[in-house]
Specification:
With about 375 residues, this protein is an alpha/beta fold. The chain has helices spanning about 5-15, 20-25, 35-45, 90-100, 115-120, 135-150, 165-170, 180-190, 190-200, 220-230, 235-245, 260-265, 290-300, 315-320, 330-340, 345-365, and strands spanning about 65, 70, 75, 105, 125-130, 155, 250-255, 270-275, 305-310, 325-330. It has one domain (about 5-375): Aldolase class I (TIM Barrel), CATH 3.20.20.70. Strand 8 (about 270-275), helix 13 and strand 9 form a beta-alpha-beta unit.
C-alpha cells in the first residue's frame, strides 16, 4: 500500500482502481478542458505571506456555512454517479462527512437515493442538490422527498440547463450501469476490487430517478434522457417557485458573473456558489477563484458567498477564504478518496485538507480561520475586484 500524503496520491490510486469511464467522468472537463485546468492552476499563482514569532497554540478551523457549524469551511460538493466511483459511494461519503463534521451534498444524479443516504447516516441532516427538469411533478416530489429525509439545505444548480460536451464521456459510452461491451468488460476485469463491491450492492442505477419518473425503468440512455429532461427554459421565476416550495435554506450554484450574483441576492437565497461546474460546462470561462473577488465585493455583505472548482489542498481552502469565500466545496478530491479507498479514503482526503489548512493558517500568522483575510496573501499575486 503506498504512503498517501496528499490529494494527488489519492487520485493516482483511484485511477488504478476505478473503471475508466467512471474515473474519466469525474476527472474531466468540457471541450479543451481549459477552464478545468485553470481552476487548479490559478490557485497556484496566489502566494502567501509567511509570518513568524506568533503564538501558534489553540488553533481552530471551525466556522459556519449558512448558519451550520462546520469543523472547517468545506462541504462535499454534489457529484453525479458518486456510487459508481465505489459501491454505495454516496452513503460512504455522507458517513465520512458526518463523522468529520462538515456538510455532505447529494446530487440529483446520484446512484444511492435520498432515502438510501438518510437511512445510511441514521437520519443525519445533509444537503440536497436539485436539477430542474421539465417534469415539474417529478421536481415537486423530489423536493418533498428531500424534506422527508430531513435535508437541511437545497442546493439549486443554475448552470446545467443544457449539458456541455465532455469528449471522454462520449468516447467511453458513459452509462450506469456500464454497457457490457468487450472494451468495458476487459477494463472492469482489471478492477476486481471495484467489481466485487458492485456485485455486493443493488445500487447501480440513478436512485433518485429510476422508479420515480413515469416511464423510466432504467437509464440505459442517460444522455438522451437528460437532454430530453433538463430544462433549457430555467429562469429566475423558477427559482422563486422552488424557494417557496422548499421553504428552507437555499443555495444557488453556478454563479460566475456579478450581474447574476445581484439577481441571486434579489431572489432571497441564503448563499450562492461561485462555480463553473468544475470546468464541465462553458469551456473558456473564468476560473472560479478569479471570479470570486468581484462577486464578494459586489454582494458579499448581502449574501453568503461560497465557491468550488480547483480545490485540491488545504492551502486552496485558505486562499479562497482569504478572498472572501465563507465556504468551499470539494468534488474531485472526495471522488479520488472514495475511488481509492472507499469511506476511509474520503476521511483521509478530509484529514489531508484539514491538516494543510491548519498548518498553512499558522504559517501565515493566524490561529482562527475566522480572522483570515486578504492580508495573508502577497500583494500582486491574487485576483482583485
Amino acid at each position: 500500500m503506498p504512503v498517501i500524503t496528499n490529494i494527488e496520491d489519492l487520485r493516482v490510486l483511484a485511477q488504478k482502481r476505478v473503471p475508466r469511464m467512471f474515473y474519466d467522468y469525474a476527472d474531466s472537463g468540457s471541450w479543451t478542458e481549459s477552464t478545468y485546468r485553470a481552476n487548479e492552476s490559478d490557485f497556484q499563482k496566489i502566494k502567501l505571506r509567511q509570518r513568524v514569532a506568533v503564538n501558534m497554540e489553540g488553533r481552530t478551523t471551525r466556522s459556519t456555512m449558512i448558519g451550520q457549524d462546520v469543523a472547517m469551511p468545506v462541504a462535499i460538493a454534489p457529484v453525479g454517479l458518486t456510487g459508481m466511483q465505489h459501491a454505495d459511494g454516496e452513503i460512504l461519503a455522507a458517513r465520512a462527512a458526518k463523522k468529520f463534521g462538515i456538510p455532505f451534498t447529494l446530487s440529483t444524479m446520484s446512484i444511492c437515493s435520498i432515502e438510501d443516504v438518510a437511512k445510511g447516516t441514521d437520519g443525519h441532516p445533509f444537503w440536497f442538490q436539485l436539477y430542474v427538469m421539465k417534469d415539474r411533478d417529478f421536481i415537486e416530489r423530489l423536493i418533498d422527498r428531500a424534506k422527508a429525509a430531513n435535508c437541511s439545505a437545497l442546493v439549486l444548480t443554475l448552470d446545467l440547463q443544457i449539458i456541455g460536451q465532455r469528449h471522454k464521456d462520449l468516447k467511453n459510452g458513459l452509462s450506469a450501469p456500464p454497457k457490457l461491451t468487450l472494451a468495458n468488460m476487459l477494463n472492469i476485469a482489471s478492477k476486481p476490487r471495484w467489481a466485487l463491491g458492485m456485485l455486493g450492492t443493488p445500487r447501480r442505477q440513478f436512485g433518485n430517478i429510476v422508479g420515480h419518473v413515469k416511464g423510466v425503468t432504467d437509464m440505459a440512455n442517460l444522455s438522451a434522457w437528460t437532454a430530453q429532461q433538463f430544462d433549457p427554459r430555467l429562469n429566475w421565476g423558477d427559482v422563486e417557485w422552488i424557494k417557496k416550495r422548499w421553504g428552507g435554506k437555499i443555495i444557488l450554484k453556478g454563479i460566475q458573473d456579478v450581474e447574476d450574483a445581484k439577481l441571486a441576492v434579489a431572489s432571497g437565497a441564503d448563499a450562492l456558489i461561485v462555480s463553473n461546474h468544475g470546468g464541465r460546462q462553458l469551456d473558456g470561462a473564468e476560473s472560479s477563484i478569479n471570479a470570486l473577488p468581484p462577486i464578494v465585493d459586489a454582494v458579499g455583505k448581502q449574501i453568503e458567498v461560497h465557491m468550488d472548482g480547483g480545490i485540491r489542498s488545504g492551502q486552496d481552502v485558505l486562499k479562497a477564504r482569504a478572498l472572501g469565500a465563507r465556504g468551499v466545496y470539494i468534488g474531485r478530491a472526495m471522488a479520488y478518496g472514495l475511488g481509492a479507498l472507499g469511506e476511509a479514503g474520503v476521511t483521509q482526503a478530509l484529514e489531508i485538507l484539514h491538516k494543510e489548512l491548519d498548518l498553512t493558517m499558522a504559517f501565515c500568522g493566524h490561529t482562527d480561520i475566522k480572522t483570515v483575510d486578504q492580508s495573508i496573501l502577497l500583494p500582486g499575486t491574487y485576483p482583485t475586484a
